[in-house]
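cron nightly-structures :: item 1 of 1
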Amino acid sequence: MRKGIIVGFLIIFVYGIGFADSVDMSQMDAIFEEFDSFSSSEQAKYYEIMEGAMDSDASLEGLAKNLSFLLSEEQIAKIEAKGYSLSQVQSNIRKLKTWSREDRMDLVDAFRSEDQDALSDLNRANAKGSLEAPTAVAEEPTIEFTAAQINAYKHGLRHLTIQTLAEIPQFEDLNEHWSKGEVTALASLGIVNGKRKGAFYPDDYISRIEILAMVTRIAVYDDTKIPQIVIQCSESVWYFKPLRRAWGLGIIEFESEERLMAFATREEVIGYLMGAYQAFEFEKIEPADLQEFKDANQIKPEYREAFEQAVTLGFVKGWEGELKPADPITRAEAAVMSNRFYKKILWMQGIGGPNEASQ
């Protein structure tokens, strides 16, 4: 419903006061007729959102910036069919920043009371900031998002590269370690931390909650968009957020604190990674044949499919022809797998760049 309301709001901008000093009455009648079909609660919500958007320059800018994510492809096509591009609608929204806040609120009131004369007067009084026809609006550069990126964004999942920290952690115990490049890359993104300042302890085994924290920091972009599961865990503990994220994404179900703090096995880590991967709803992939690995028959049935997919995607390459599913996994090994996961979900969305974790 919220998206439908926002679309109605944009229709007003484009069709209602889209031409400098005049209002097309037939178009306005059609818009108000559509609003009449809303319930009273829906109409109230519409005007609440409209008032929020008009409240400040920052809220108008936020609406303009997030336009491509708020509209479906069908809704965008509807606007474009009228001769407007998204960048032109964004430009029109930004023009309202030249209006005083009082005039913007009066605009909302005019729509609420269906007062077309007031609409015309307001548009005319703000002639320099009035909304112009498409041909008079300069095109602004736009960023094209893939369907996979848009889907990830709507679900609160990673759709952009993570920004590098201003101060990159340095770990003295990684200087000669085989995992230095990938661990440092993830540390620079705030995805992994040391066990103490200046030390990562790459060869220590990793706990289940530590790997869940690593994976969910990569996967989740906006906590408010994933299911807010109520968990029996104090918000003051460091792992509260990753634990709720993991449950919200369906990566795990109830786990005791004792089990979460215990060492994770390789197959459990693969299960977590593939659980997060499934949340992105990418297209089905062809599972790998695991027969090339000597110990493939040792994988527990519940992790078999996760292993098959992880090998296909390149998260898992094996160790000298073995998968060692029941073995505990080190912090360095878990970081390398998580780095591969991060790069893969970006690649699946057509994203890459200087902030991507290193090879």
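cron nightly-structures :: done
Residues 1-5, 14-30, 129-141, 353-359 have pLDDT under 50 and may be disordered.
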